[in-house]
Design goal:
With 78 residues, the chain is an alpha+beta fold. The protein has one domain. It contains 3 helices and 3 strands; from the N terminus they run H-E-H-H-E-E. Strands 1-3-2 form a 3-stranded antiparallel sheet. Helix 1 packs across helix 3. The model has no long low-confidence stretch (mean pLDDT 94).
């Protein structure tokens, strides 16, 4: 059985609006950059919520390693 996801609506969430605004600039944004530009520390969850609102966000895109850590990014599709 698939679980139902609870999520904020884009129209009412300043947090999601901020993330969407950054992604609208185009290009791939690392999770660290998205955190800096939006103030959110839960980018993966915020991306999930955007998807639930019908925003076509890519899967995590592997960008390489930095200081031994894997770096991922996101972009709008389409």
């Amino acid at each position: 059985m698939k679980r139902k996801s609870h999520y904020a609506t884009l129209e009412k969430s300043d947090r999601l609006k901020a993330l969407y605004s950054v992604l609208l600039r185009g290009g791939i944004f690392s999770t660290a950059r998205l955190q800096r530009e939006t103030g959110s520390v839960a980018i993966h969850s915020d991306i999930h919520e955007l998807r639930q609102n019908g925003v076509p966000v890519s899967k995590g895109i592997y960008l390489g390693k930095s200081d031994g850590r894997k770096v991922y990014g996101y972009k709008l599709q389409g």
